[in-house]
Amino acid sequence: MRPQPPRRTTHTHGTPADLLVYDRWGRSGRPVVLLHGLRYDRTMWWPLAAELGDDITAVAVDLPGHGQSAPRAHCGVDDLAEDLATLVYGLGLRRAPILIAHAESAHVSERFAARYSAHRVVTIGGTGPARLDDVPEPYRQFAVPQRSPDLPAVYRDWLTDALPRSTHVGAEHFPHLRDPAGFAALLHSLH
């Protein structure tokens, strides 16, 4: 029996000054780009991505200054949408992606969709305080915010604009952690 490749692989994109780190699952099927909200990182998507199966290519990106991506002095929505488009194009994905945006990352997903090809944009969560009561204990570790005093200044444009309302899935901050299999089924229905 031959060894199976890992389901999740970690990659980098860009130069050291604008480095983005991302995880990828799958090699074919409708691409799904997963964007976390401010103060979180790409690991918040791991339980969901594990449920998606092999017929979806999932890409979870660390926003600048989050997780393992390089910090920036300023992170404008337009610049990040362009960086994301370059990353998606470089992956050789042959179909327009579904963008899943948590909280404030809805800004970049909407800008991406306005400028580039996107199959659908789905936003989850909000900007109020996140409650972990509905998240099962094993998944709470993926919903712990980072404490970085520099992030509000770097993302100041994101914090002053109202969140766009694309296809919005509930008011919960973490529906993908509350029920990863159910959220994966929802994504499969969006093909």
TrEMBL record:
Q: Which UniProt keywords apply?
A: Hydrolase
Q: Can you give the residue ranges of the AB hydrolase-1 domain?
A: 32-159
Q: Which GO terms describe its molecular function?
A: hydrolase activity
> One Pfam family for this entry, by name?
Abhydrolase_6
> Is Cell cycle one of the keywords UniProt gives this record?
no
Q: Which residues cross the membrane?
A: none
Q: Which InterPro entries match?
A: AB_hydrolase_1 (IPR000073), AB_hydrolase_fold (IPR029058), AB_hydrolase_sf (IPR050266)
Q: Which Gene3D superfamilies match?
A: alpha/beta hydrolase
Q: What GO CC terms are in its UniProt record?
A: membrane
Protein name stated in the entry:
Alpha/beta hydrolase family protein
